Amino acid sequence: MQTPVSRQFATFALIGVGGLFVDMAALAVALHLLALDPYGGRVFSYLMAATFTWYMNRQFTFTGVSRRGAIRQWARFLAANAVGAVVNYGVYVLVLNTGPWVMGVIGLWPAVLTALLPYAGVAAGSISGLVFNFILSKRLVFRKS
């Protein structure tokens, strides 16, 4: 019996929430322990989160798919999700570069929020890439043979 697409999408989205937390934690490590800038740190955190979500989706979302060729499947996952990754990263950069200006214009930009801006960018980017990533993962990475 095949899992309904709506259930797969819900599972994919929940795993994406877990990936969001992995992404933010990895970004904190990149910024504060590895001393990377927000852009390089974001590449690092994205790869950590993508690896987490690939593994979890392999185990829970797309069941019944061959478990062989994990490294190849992981590489296909990264390649297929490159569209979502570009959207995700683009939104992240947009938030970093326009967030203070937009919030300043409407009078809601206390200085303390500056430190939180990269994490807001991660969240906005993750949400924007979700649909792209689900469709491409389902059709290209976890398709049944």
Automatic annotation (TrEMBL):
Boundaries of every GtrA/DPMS transmembrane domain copy: 11-142
Primary residence: membrane
The UniProt record lists the keyword Transmembrane: yes
Membrane topology reported for the UniProt record: Multi-pass membrane protein
Intracellular or extracellular location(s): Membrane
A GO CC annotation given for this chain: plasma membrane
Gene Ontology biological-process annotations: polysaccharide biosynthetic process
Spans through the membrane: 12-33, 39-56, 77-96, 116-136
Keywords from the named record: Membrane, Transmembrane, Transmembrane helix
Family annotation (Pfam families): GtrA_DPMS_TM
UniProt cross-references to PANTHER family, sorted A to Z: PROPHAGE BACTOPRENOL-LINKED GLUCOSE TRANSLOCASE HOMOLOG
Family label: Belongs to the GtrA family.
Protein name, UniProt field: GtrA/DPMS transmembrane domain-containing protein
Organism: Niveispirillum lacus
